[in-house]
Amino acid sequence: MRNSEKIPATVITGFLGAGKTSLIRNLIENSGGKKLALIINEFGDLGVDGEVLKGCGNENCSEEDIVELANGCICCTVADDFLPTIQALLDREERPDHIIVETSGLALPKPLVRAFGWPEVRTQVTVDGVITVIDGPAYRDGLFASDPLAVQAQREADENLDHESPLEELFEDQLNCADMVLLNKSDMLETQDFEKAATEIQNRVRPSVKIIKSSHGKLDAKVLLGIGAMAEDDLDARKSHHDDSDDHEHDDFDSFVVNLTNPADVDSLISKLETAIANHNILRAKGFIAVQGKDMRLVIQAVGNRIQHYFDRDWKEGEDRTSRLVIIGEHGLDQTAITAQLMD
């Protein structure tokens, strides 16, 4: 089968809260008539991103075209979860025109791209491109250092600090595997901050990789789809900190669900979440909340100390109106204390 006859697949990676879901939602709404299939990989027990995307209700990507993998990081469960999911899409009578894979914010992209080289997949699907989404303001604020070695040296000079740097390594792996980097939330950056970040990132990626400015993930689908990278064929050029081992686990991260009493006051809940984030090493919080007296579902998404919340849709008839938050952070989270703080 010629490459032009294969179904193209785009892998969207990026750190927690960079804007992957907004990007995919925009792709669904502006796909130019392409029938899309989405594979959404959640880290945690509550498939928030998939539910947000299902709220789009777009004819180019119906609810049955969205597959959620919630059994852990996709790069660790390739054989058990990902490959059977791809095969099920290929076995459909009406195949998708394009497959979009949104990885967990904690996923290493290279093992996933490698999976597209498996014999039963590579004859029918090609990796059109790997897109890495970066939170522009977070990068500007130094959450990802331009010199990881200097950060590591600084950590080692302070015996009170953790000397491991899994987040920096993960960030580098996502950059190294990219065919395109989106510096997202650029509307929150001054021109000089964007240019500085773009220059730093360009110096860290392969020369062919394009750095694109984006806000709220809004980009023409023609820019994102049709890159033609055939990424599965040039894995050696995509360096990874984990090249020496195909087996890896994300023991550096914890994820758990907090079941909350349905709140009467949104501001009070947000205040509690802000306090919990400030007091504990919480990287991300996200979930759905059933506010007393409200017919609409509240979505909460927090990255660091930045918290977004909005009502996305009405609760469906018969739907379980419960309030749950997924909490994600580095290993050692005090689940009892965080839960108590949120439920206080």
Count of alpha/pi helices:
12
Instruction: Give the percentage of residues in beta strands.
Output: 15-25%
Termini separation (Å)? 60 Å
What name does CATH use for the topology of the largest domain?
Rossmann fold
Mean pLDDT rating: 80
Radius of gyration: 20 Å
The total domain count is 2
- Class of the largest domain in CATH? Alpha Beta
The helical percent reads 25-40%
CATH superfamily of the largest domain: P-loop containing nucleotide triphosphate hydrolases
Brief account:
The protein is an alpha/beta fold and 344 residues long. It has helices at residues 20-29, 48-54, 78-90, 109-115, 119-122, 136-140, 148-157, 166-176, 191-202, 221-224, 266-279, 335-343, and strands at residues 7-14, 36-41, 66-69, 98-102, 125-135, 180-184, 210-213, 253-260, 282-290, 296-303, 306-314, 323-330.
List keywords for this structure.
344 residues; alpha/beta; Rossmann fold; Hypothetical Protein Yjia, Chain: A,domain 2; 7-stranded parallel β-sheet; 5-stranded antiparallel β-sheet; globular
